[in-house]
Here is the input.
Amino acid sequence: MALSRKIAYINLTTGEIRTETISKELRKQYIGGRGLDIYLLYRNTEKGVDPLGPGNAAIVSAGLLTGTLASASARTHVAAKSPLTGYVGSANIGGFFGPEMRLAGFDHLVITGKAEKPVYLYLTNDSIEIRPAEHLWGTDTRTVQQMIVDELGDDDVKTLCIGRAGENLVKYACIRTSIKNSAGRTGIGAVWGSKNLKAVAAKGTLDIKLHDPLMALEYNRKIIDQVTSAKVSKTMQKLGTPFIWGVTNSTGLVRTRNFQSNQLSDADDIEPESIEEDIVGTAGCFGCQVHCRGKYVIREGKYKGIYDEGPEYTSLGAFGAEVGCRSKTTVLTGNHLVNYYGLDNLETGSMMAWAMELFEKGILTREDTGGMDLTWGNDEAVIELIHKIANREGIGDILADAPLEAARRIGKDSLRYLVHVKGMSNLHSDERPTPALALNVAVSSRGSDHLRGRPAIDLYHLPEPFLRKVYSNPIPYDGPLTSDYRDYEGKPWQVLWQEHCYEAVDCLGICKYHTVFLGPNMPCFQEWPELIRVNTGLSFTPEEIWEVAERGYTLERLFNIREGLTRSEDTLSDRYFDEPVPEGLPVVRGRCIDREKFRLMLDEYYRLRGWDENGVPTPEKLKELGLDTI
Amino acid sequence: MEKVLVIDPEICTGCRICEQVCSVVNENVVNPYRARIKVMRWETQGVVVPMACQQCDTPMCREVCPVNALEKNPDTGVVTVNYDRCIGCRMCVAACPFGLMMYDFVDKKVIKCEQCQGDPQCVRFCDAGALRFEDKQKNGSAARKKQGKKLKAALSGRDQP
Here is the structure.
């Protein structure tokens, strides 16, 4: 069964490996994926552990449905204490690795210690081998995957790896697989680098048995039809996520020049229609019919002729709006380089934008930058800076650190211009006109981030009765809700609901584009029980899945509190409150977040969660979730 | 009527749902390595090619079989394995020029695409349309039309539609 896969504990210091089965009880409490991920992280690290020390645990988790006949069941979750924030490090990745890890017999890897010399792990049919990787050290994320395939003599081997950024302990280095799949956020790549762990490779041929194969086949067909009949999916099939740019930039919801503006003018070259000209086809992750990964070849410049995949919406921001560049070539090249080095594109773009504003304000000078001209829109400088960050050269060495560390190293007034939450930068979206989205980034368990609980459908002006239908499932909600995205009413519940929705798909191992993220009619709590039943035989009610999500999310909170988090960090940078957006449509222009109303939203959010006014889960809530004895 | 599985590598997104579904339909489990169809990948160049048995007019697997375990249906053209006769020598695996006569290491038997009794499930799940199940007479018509359109555009001096 899909349920027979094991947890493997690998100590890289001693070379000791032991395995453990997963009890049904644990499944009922955490399902798998991100749920068991945080459970394992909480239990296998000690308070105050050094994120880059041997005591940190690097965890790799397949979802409960990863590799089964659930549409887009491609996902793998990775975790560790984050070297970027000091709190929960947690990221999700698609591609083909997760299903392969399950075919090899494993659901979760808990990797501790530090290898004396670079190593990689090879998982195959219930066995794990620690192999030398000195010859792989220093390679980019694409080359290393090919070298492992060649060395093992098997084209079907799938690999998670780090690039030079992870080896150089860039605090926002990511984990990668295939051409573009990345577990981008919170710097897990640096944790792997600190353990001398270059890669985890898998190839397995063990059957994934299904509870009811024929029903699973038919139910999968139904879910696929539900997903792909949505207009948003049809657009994604053609354009990938860059399609979002057209709406957000014209409305004025795009962060430009490090939050100084909210719209990039004269940017025709990076509009989705222009990007589409360079997209030669699209690629899908395991079993996915949305196939949102664009395939492109760089047409101009120094990197002409190189094939890569993407760009995601986030790269349009990182190498476009945020740094004030308007060139498609820069976006496509920047996207390629972060893939090559294994860097989180969001953090890279935000750090560069911050540095450019410091340059504008005279806090950084040509002397600091080694002669580089960090003027907004300097395409060459942006590309050069990516190399410098990944290799920790010159100014890049400072920018490769966590934002708060970098601000300490630069000193002066630099912290004032840093836009972050819990020490992590955001993507290029400007949430000042959208309180729901702003609350989401402020309370997200891994620092400023949109993929933990963004109520993106809040931007659609959906009628209130329809919103109520979505947000009252499976838990009845009779509080306020409003279809105006500029409002503060009812937004805390929307954020909480989305947090549980995303936590649940991350536990299941399904892609977020197959649930209520960009499309309101996507599969969700009502469909998942049957999906779980036909594939695994486990029975869950929608309410039980909700509770699993709440348990996982609360445990992430407990982890953060253990590491020192307080209410004061569930907030936004001053710019959100003090500087109204200067551009955009009349509906957004001049708006910013009201401090008092934000405080009330946060109070309401805590209250709905059963947390006290300091954001600490109450003893009653912990008891209810069975977390009082964790 | 003879129908064949037509592959279009240019459209294939490489998602492997065909392998996934094939293994479920034929073996009741998800195991791409027991599927009758295989997506070949050259990821660094962005090239993927789905490959499945084309039910040859002169099937080399049948030619080489010492016990006549492979039969070609005169009506549908489908080549099937008669497991009552098969001795598991795997000469058919060696003979197939495409490597699409395969060996199932779990059940210890040779396997090949037999078109799911006339309703190939890989085709049903390939929404991208990289796999099609078409009348043999139509084979190649899509490619001809695609290239023909280019020629037409060139001759009439207009941009392609």
